[in-house]
Amino acid sequence: KANTATISDWKGVFVYCEFRRGALAPVSLELLGIGRKLADTRGVRLSAVLIGHDTGETASQLIGHGADQVLRVDQPELADFSEDSYSQVLTALVKEHKPEIVLAGATAIGRSFIPAVATQLNAGLTADCTKLEIREEDGLLMQTRPAFGGNIMATIVCPAHRPQMSTVRPKVMKALEFDGARTGDIIDVTPVPAQLASRIKVLETVVCEESNVNIQESEILVSGGRGLESDKGFALIRQLAEALGGNVSASRAVVDAGWISYPHQVGQTGKTVAPKLYVACGISGAIQHVAGMQSSETIVAINRDANAPIFNVADYGLVGDLFEILPKLIRKIEEKRGA
Amino acid sequence: MKIFVCVKQVPDAKDVRLDPVTNTLAREGVESIMNPYDQHALEEAVRLKEAHGGEVIAITMGPPQAEEILRLAISCGADQGVLVSDRAFAGADTWATAYTLEQAIRHLGSADLILCGKQAIDGDTAQVGPGLALRMQIPFITCVQKVRSCSDQAIVVERMMDDGYDVVEAPLPSLLTVVKDINEPRVPSLKGKMKAKKAEIQVLTATTINADPACIGLPGSPTQVARVFPPEARGERSVLSGTLDEQLDQLVEKLTPYL
Ligand SMILES: Cc1cc2nc3c(=O)[nH]c(=O)nc-3n(C[C@H](O)[C@H](O)[C@H](O)COP(=O)(O)OP(=O)(O)OC[C@H]3O[C@@H](n4cnc5c(N)ncnc54)[C@H](O)[C@@H]3O)c2cc1C
Ligand SMILES: Cc1cc2nc3c(=O)[nH]c(=O)nc-3n(C[C@H](O)[C@H](O)[C@H](O)COP(=O)(O)OP(=O)(O)OC[C@H]3O[C@@H](n4cnc5c(N)ncnc54)[C@H](O)[C@@H]3O)c2cc1C
């Protein structure tokens, strides 16, 4: 177990920057935004940890977005995500540099291997945070997160262990504007072969056509529910999404019906999203659905039942028949955008 | 094949609210259920047993009444239920929970496969599975949506990613966490219910599993809940008025910043 006496040895902020198949996950830049703030408050350095292969110019991009230094681990063995190798590489870097705070995105990858890193380090880990601040009295990281499907919020601290680790929900923190004038060090790290070894093997990667987009990263989501009645009805959702320049998501009822695949499900047993605009069409607003979308900036609901609970969280509500409303709305939006 | 399934008793989410005065969970009248993801983990374990032979052991850390979900597990095909229960475990975070489950599973002998849910719908962290695997020193794969094949040596699964899925192979023993897509859990059979009623549930305490007091319960937990509070209420909702056409025009106007 970590020893209280050594806490002062831990300094600096680490941000794990997720890179997969040639692209940086946008949440990484958001983490650098909040990481910069925390590092400045603590008067310490902000390090970006970049793990993957063929990362190209990504490291300088990370500097431009706020990192003081980038620890780059670019190896062919790391081309595919593996719980084993990624957790060993990151654990070794944390042990060496002893940062007081480690942040990662609460994505499929982050939530998969970061718990293993925390366990190896005997560190606490707070899941899926939506707010991070430094407490003035003692410099502790106050980590706030929803639990019980969003019904309650909890603020968590790790007083006696280092590092303090959090996964952070995408779309909640703000990235800094890219600033090409920012300078920083890029340090290439070569892990020992044992860290690159993976007991698990990725045999194949399948990108679902429509799942190309991660709905957690979307600014605008048009979400359909059972009220669309059929696969064909659901096509209206795709049209509206296209008109708005957004992506498509759905309630569980729709995923269960097979009109769209599971990565598009919003809710307690699907994904938690917080886009700028969420349009709920023919969704009743069951608590398990609302848990996944209630932190959206603006919520529009369309439902023929004026008493549908979705209206309790909606900023704008339209009561009426979808099959009448959606085609009109699509036309009006297209006109507006065309104008 | 010896398969452990980690199951957690959770409050039925739709009933959970914070008492606005005391800021504590209003648990009165709230029903307890088996964590929904764990039902899928259990179903997958039973299917693997049916296909390859072996036994399925459902294990939970929780208060005495968590025995209910172990009986439910047996009625759905588990061979045994193990309750890891002790006052000293109270207040465990995911680190301490993973430690406790590790000690308990080691006490019960070796595992070929450990199955967990993707996450529990109360704590919502999804951290216990990976933490447990790390402690058991076995590989793990999270968010498994399908088991493609399984032999004595290895398992091939589909791991859900944010943009699709990976086909991944792991040697056994391994730990998997599963999503609901993986299967449709069965309902308990009459015979299963009878068996569950009669089954003896093994209870393990902190002493039986030889747990280090500094690693369990609240004292063993690196994270501490400093405060709980209700989520911020959303602002007033704006009313759209007039005919449908007029309402739509107002809406499109409001949406202009997003276009
Ligand atoms: C443990 C658990 C986990 C769950 N997890 C999730 C989750 O992650 N995500 C999720 O979404 N659900 C989840 N659910 C399911 C959830 O409880 C609801 O059953 C589901 O959200 C309902 O989907 P829906 O709103 O599309 O359908 P319904 O509830 O059937 O609602 C359809 C709505 O469409 C309206 N409608 C119908 N026809 C029209 C029309 N022509 N014009 C306008 N409106 C119309 C109706 O008035 C109704 O309000 C979960 C349930 C459980 C028990
Ligand atoms: C409001 C609140 C916020 C919290 N936030 C955090 C946090 O950020 N970090 C943290 O470390 N702890 C946190 N905790 C503590 C955490 O909820 C408990 O440690 C809990 O015992 C396990 O975590 P979980 O419910 O998130 O399970 P998850 O990790 O989400 O569960 C995943 C799977 O692990 C298995 N599993 C989990 N618990 C058990 C069990 N008791 N017995 C058998 N199998 C089990 C199941 O298969 C389950 O599907 C929080 C608790 C509360 C009340």
From TrEMBL, chain B:
Entry-linked SUPFAM superfamilies: Adenine nucleotide alpha hydrolases-like
Pfam families registered for this protein in UniProt: ETF (PF01012)
Flavoprotein recorded as keyword: no
GO MF annotation: an example: electron transfer activity
Keyword set, alphabetical order: Electron transport, Transport
Top-rank lineage group of the source organism: Bacteria
CDD domains linked to this entry: ETF_beta
InterPro entries in alphabetical order: ETF_a/b_N, ETF_b, ETF_beta_N, Rossmann-like_a/b/a_fold
SMART domains xrefs: ETF
Location of the Electron transfer flavoprotein alpha/beta-subunit N-terminal domain: 22-213
Protein name: Electron transfer flavoprotein beta subunit
Originating species: Desulfopila aestuarii DSM 18488
